[in-house]
Structures are given as C-alpha cells and as structure tokens.
Amino acid sequence: MGNLLSLKRVRNILILVALDGSDTSNNALRQTIRFARAKACGVTAVTVLPPYEGDLELGMMSNIRQAMKEPGEKILDAANKIAVEEGVEIETTLETGNIHESIIDVAIEKDCDMIVIGRSGKHGIERALMGSTAARVIGYSPIDVLVMPNNATLKWDNILLAVDGSKYSEIAANRAINMAQTYGEELNIISVVDVNEEFYANAPDAVEQMVRNAHDVVDSVQDMSKKSKIKTNTFVREGESHEKIIEMARKLQSDMICLGSHGRTGLRRLLMGSVTEKVIGNAPCPVLVVKSH
Prior knowledge:
Belongs to the universal stress protein A family. By secondary structure, the protein is α/β, with parallel strands linked by helices. Helices cover about 45% and strands about 20% of the residues. The chain is elongated.
C-alpha cells in the first residue's frame, strides 16, 4: 500500500461516491478516482445498509449484525480493489440506516463538495430515478450531486451550462465558471425558450421578447466568465427544454451538463416532469445538479 497515491488527503475538493455494488456505481467510482488523481481531489466511498427491523434476541444480535454487514463490506472491498487497480487509496465508510439520508449525512459530516451517484437503467427517468435512492439524494441534498450514466467518462474539459435566468441558474453559472476555470477548457452556455405551438401562434411578440430575454441571460453569464479567461460560447434554442439541452450536449460532445436545482422543493419538482428530471434521465454524459446551499 506504500506505493499507492493517497486520495484521502484533500487538496482541492472532496468527492463522496455512493455505492450499491452495481457495475454502474463501480464505474462511477473508477471514473471519479481517475479524475481525482489527475486533479488532486479527495475521494470517499460510502455504502449504506438498511437497518434490521426484525425481532432480536440478545444472544443473536451480534451474529445478525455481522451477517447484515457482509454485503456492505463486500461492496467496499470491491471499491478498495478498484482503487488499488488505479494506483491509489481511498477512504471508505459503511453506514446503516435510511439510505439517502445516510449518504447525505456522511457528505455533510465530511464536508464533501460533491456527491457522485450512478444512473442505472436504459429507459429514461422512469426506471433510472423515479422513487429511487438517487432521486431522494438529488432532491434533499444541500450538496451538489453528479449523476453518472453507465459507462460514462468523468471529465470537466467541455461543460454545457443550462440557464434560465433564475437565481438557481445563476448559482449554477457561478459553479460552472469556477469549474471551467479550475479544471476545464471550455464553457458552453445554453438557454431554451420553451413554449407550445399555440402560444407561438397567439403571441408571437411575446415569444420574440422571450428569445431576447434568453439572449440576455446567456450574454450575462458570458460576461461573468470574462474575468476567468475561459473560452465560452452561447446558444439560444426554441423547443422542448430537455430535448434541446441534450441535443446540444450531443452536438458539442459535452463532458458534462450543469444545471441548477430549484430550491427546497427539489424532490417534488424533480419527480414531476421537470427539465432537470428529463435531462438526468436521458443525458449522454454526467449531469451536475448544483444546489443552492
């Protein structure tokens, strides 16, 4: 172990990776380790076991607890094996309790800057996030959450930032600018005018004003980024917001999509057909949901 690079000592940011033993979460860990090793970040892996709710006799308690811990220990053993394969050592932690609450508690306790979770499933948000631990982490975490599709690579060289002029997108813009300045090379900024055909037909002047407002929004973010001396491009599109964001991410071969989370009602909004939900469920690349903490 002496020849391994330690990612326990944090120099820049600390990333918490939530594991469930799946290939998707293991890939998320491997990609996070590779990124962290290159960018001098720290990595902690966590897995959570649900509490035992059956009847316990005192003499059986320790045996049952140990038996319950074994699946979690196997997950963390696999995590440490991945770390060794990548030439590093990481911190691991095994928790028992409500899964999404425990993940968030660990992230807060360790003062993590980001939580990484894998996105499973191939059929969009309904299977990937609806009612799952991932959705609850995204909805309730005060800390930024990065959702990794299966087999995705984690890079921050080419970031696509989606903005809508809200205070939440301004927070996301500041985060994306900082990330691009620190770790990346290029920041692409998109705002989408999303109105239905009937509105287009009945209020063309209003739509034109919305387009002008969208240009103002992306131009404002570009102005914010000038001090950082990063390369930026701006785009305004009309149509379904999530479709245009994903379409642009594919066209630009974006490494990551960054967007804001709308306040404390995040979970309810996330699971009720929001843009964030649909982008997360269908994006070809990792999606960073920036929280307003």
